[in-house]
Design brief:
Number of strands: 21
CATH architecture of the largest domain: 2-Layer Sandwich
Number of helices: 15
Number of domains: 2
CATH class of the largest domain: Alpha Beta
Distance between the termini: 25 Å
CATH superfamily of the largest domain: Bira Bifunctional Protein, Domain 2
Oligomer: single chain
Largest sheet: 9 strands, mixed
Length: 506
């Protein structure tokens, strides 16, 4: 290992050896902390306000983020999960030998513990006057490139990390030096909590369904395949929770939801990651109109609770989440953006010819559903900046949705969009087992086995439906995309702690 370290790292290793030679363990087993930095600051402010004469004594712990030695005194900043606080070390308080040790053996990035009394400096900064300190963890690798920043009138040197590729590959360093990145993930957790709270308060039951599935389904996506050695069985990482959640409706659980990971063996882009967090819910006795209204209410609830505003900014656009959201018939939306009326082209050949006539790039051998999906994604979706529901989709791209009364070629489905990004997908769910079986058979004929839109026949799901499934509305949303939109992040990788990346040598 030592041969792989650079000169700075080698120097820090030597400091570890010197500390141990002096009987100081650079990685002690125990740490003591009486308050976080912000708790200590609030405690001191409260004592000030009450004109309390008794000193506020605390023990703090955190990472060294700034060091300013000034002869007989040293100023430093440590950072913990709640924020930063200044330390004041003076030879008269800690002893000259300890102060020299601090200056000689401690580095930016080290974790330390310090005990002392809170006070306010002449510049007004609340500070810990250190009486004793100890190292908690020695950092061997320095945090990335330093820059100067003015903090409370003082120039503070601290580390930053700007290169996106390095940030994603070394998220631990990214989090350590970029507080705004840490804030994104605090916000993400708060958004998930708000979604969960919203559904819990409306009588939904949170459940868990299998991640390893013998048959994948519930979405149009290519799965990841694995193998169970003892069972000698191929299994799939789930692409959706849908078919298992709807089985629970058969069992009498009328409102269910799951927040968890789905896996789709597809491309990576600013809005796609092969492993992502999904929210799905299903509610008995509801249709897609009721789900549409609930969707607006849920997203606004999350924004109110976490962002504190119904107006967000994403990619230079101000987006107003206030209901009611715009509602656009899919057919009409495609007519307005492409000039093609999909109802006039009931076959893939006819639709392909219309696209070719308008010089719209496409795969002439694709199924009709894929052609419609391409028109939607390439031409209509980018125009949907303000929150919009596209509704009433062709039956041949929605094998699990119920047909509209009197129009068997169209299903009761909607997708929600904002910022030019698809956010959610929902149906009045098909609960007729005979119709569902026919849909599976049709999909099997129209699409090749390795096609992304192929949905394999799930006999057990059909068996469950034959026991009787109540009418219901279902909903699915990419949580990562919602977080990306609400935090004005430009890329899905910004809101996933450890996004998937190509091998570095590729």
């Amino acid at each position: 290992m030592n041969s792989e370290l650079n000169s700075l790292e080698q120097t820090r290793l030597e400091k570890i050896e010197r500390l141990r030679a002096q009987g100081i363990e650079p990685y002690p087993t125990r740490a003591e902390r009486s308050h976080t930095s912000q708790e200590a600051i609030r405690l001191f402010e409260a004592a000030e306000a009450a004109a309390q004469t008794e000193p506020v004594k605390v023990t703090l712990a955190g990472r060294l983020r700034a060091l300013r030695p000034m002869g007989k005194i040293t100023f430093a900043h440590i950072e913990d999960g709640s924020g930063r606080v200044q330390l004041f070390l003076r030879a008269n308080d800690v002893g000259q030998e300890a102060l020299d040790l601090f200056g000689r053996e401690f580095d930016l990035g080290d974790f330390i513990q310090a005990r002392g009394e809170m006070f306010r400096t002449r510049t007004g900064e609340i500070t810990l006057r250190v009486e004793t300190f100890q190292i908690l963890a020695k950092a061997i690798t320095p945090l990335p490139a330093a820059k100067d920043e003015l903090v409370d009138g003082q120039v503070v040197r601290h580390a930053t990390l700007a290169d996106p590729e390095t940030r994603y590959r070394q998220r631990y360093a990214d989090l350590a030096v970029n507080p705004e990145v840490r804030q994104i993930f605090y916000t993400r957790a708060a958004i998930v909590s708000a979604l969960r709270r919203f559904l819990d308060e409306r009588g939904f039951l949170e459940v868990e369904t299998p991640i390893l599935q013998p048959i994948y389904g519930g979405a149009a996506a290519r799965p990841f395949t694995t193998h169970h050695n003892q069972l000698k069985q191929d299994l799939f990482l789930r692409i959706s929770f849908e078919l298992y959640l709807k089985r629970l409706l058969v069992g009498g659980l009328e409102r269910v939801y799951e927040i968890g990971r789905d896996f789709r063996n597809e491309g990576i882009s600013f809005k796609h990651n092969p492993e992502f967090t999904q929210l799905e819910f299903y509610m008995a006795y509801a249709d897609y109109q009721q789900v549409m209204a609930l969707t607006e209410e849920m997203i606004v609830y999350a924004a109110d609770q976490v962002i504190g505003s119904r107006k967000i900014h994403f990619r230079g656009n101000e987006i107003d989440l206030t209901p009611p959201w715009r509602r656009v018939d899919l057919r009409q939306g495609l007519i307005e953006t492409t000039g093609i009326d999909i109802n006039e082209h009931p076959s893939a050949e006819s639709l392909s010819a219309a696209m070719r006539q308008r010089d719209l790039p496409h795969n002439p051998n694709a199924a009709r559903g894929k052609l419609i999906d391409g028109l939607l994604g390439d031409y209509l979706e980018p125009t949907l900046i303000q929150p919009t529901f596209l509704y009433d989709y062709p039956r041949d791209i929605s094998p699990l949705a119920k047909s509209k009364p009197g129009d068997p070629s169209t299903v009761e489905r909607f997708e929600g969009f904002m910022g030019g990004v698809e956010l959610c997908n929902a149906f009045t769910e098909l609960n007729d087992p005979l119709d569902q079986e026919q849909r599976f058979l049709e999909m099997g004929r129209e699409y090749q086995v390795d096609d992304d839109l192929h949905n394999p026949m799930d006999e057990d799901y059909l068996r469950a439906m034959r026991y009787g499934m109540p009418p219901n509305g279902g909903f699915g949303m990419g949580v990562d995309r919602l977080v990306m939109l609400l935090t004005n992040s430009q890329n899905l990788r910004e809101v996933i702690l450890f996004p998937h990346l190509r091998n570095k040598e590729e």
